[in-house]
Specification:
It holds the Pfam family Usp. By secondary structure, the protein is an alpha/beta fold. Helices cover 42% and strands 19% of the residues. A 7-stranded mixed β-sheet has the order 1-4-3-2-5-6-7, sandwiched between helices.
C-alpha cells in the first residue's frame, strides 16, 4: 500500500479536502477538470482570504488475485519474474495516471494537491481514502456503462454513493447538448 499525503481528517482551520477518484479513463480526468473549475475555483472566489480546498487524487491499483494461476489460458507458465514484471507495469500505469491528473491540476497553481495510490478494489479504496482524508466531498467520473455491464461488473460510483460518509458527485462526460449547457454533474 502506497499512500502519500492522506493522514487523516483535516484539522480545524486547515483547508477543506475534496477527494477525486482518478483512473486511466477520460471520464475520470473530465471529473477532475470539472471539480477544479466548479468546486475549487468557486470556493476560492467565494472566500478569497481562505485557502482553497486541498484536492486529494485517489487511484486504486488492481491487486493480483490470490492463487493466481501459474499457467495462463494459453498454457504458458507464468514465472515469478513475469508476475513481478506485471506488478511493475501496474505500478508504472498508476504513476502515469497520477502524473496526468497532477498535470491537469497545474492550471490551478494555488491548489494543494495530495495523492493516494493503494492496491485493492476501487470501491473500497476510494471510500476508505475519502474517510481517511476527512473529505467534504468525493468527485468521480461515470463510465456510462449500460445496465448489463453494471450488473456484471458492478458500479464503483454506485457503491461510493451508497457507502461514503461524505457527499458524492458523479460527473458524466458531456455529450452534444449537455456539453453546451454545462449540465453534467449529479449530486447524490
Amino acid at each position: 500500500m502506497e499512500s502519500k499525503g492522506v493522514t487523516g481528517a483535516a484539522a480545524a482551520g486547515s483547508p477543506r479536502r475534496v477527494v477525486v477518484a482518478v483512473d486511466e479513463s477520460e471520464e475520470s480526468m473530465h471529473a477532475l477538470s470539472w471539480c477544479l473549475s466548479n468546486v475549487v475555483s468557486v470556493a476560492a472566489a467565494n472566500a478569497p482570504a481562505a485557502p482553497p480546498p486541498a484536492v486529494v487524487l485517489v487511484h486504486a491499483r488492481p491487486t493480483r488475485p490470490l492463487g493466481y494461476p501459474v499457467i495462463d489460458g494459453a498454457g504458458y507458465v507464468l514465472t515469478q519474474e513475469v508476475m513481478d514484471s506485471m506488478d511493475r507495469y501496474m505500478a508504472a500505469a498508476a504513476d502515469t495516471v497520477v502524473a496526468k491528473a497532477r498535470d491537469i491540476c497545474t492550471a490551478f497553481p494555488n491548489v494543494k494537491v495530495e495523492t493516494c495510490v493503494e492496491k485493492g478494489d476501487p470501491r473500497e479504496v476510494i471510500c476508505g481514502a475519502a474517510e481517511k482524508a476527512g473529505a467534504e466531498m468525493l468527485v468521480m467520473g461515470s463510465h456510462g456503462y449500460g445496465f448489463l455491464q453494471r450488473a456484471l461488473l458492478g458500479s464503483v460510483s454506485n457503491h461510493c454513493v451508497q457507502n461514503c460518509k461524505c457527499p458524492v458527485v458523479v460527473v458524466k462526460r458531456p455529450s452534444g447538448a449537455a456539453a453546451a449547457a454545462g449540465d453534467n454533474a449529479k449530486t447524490e
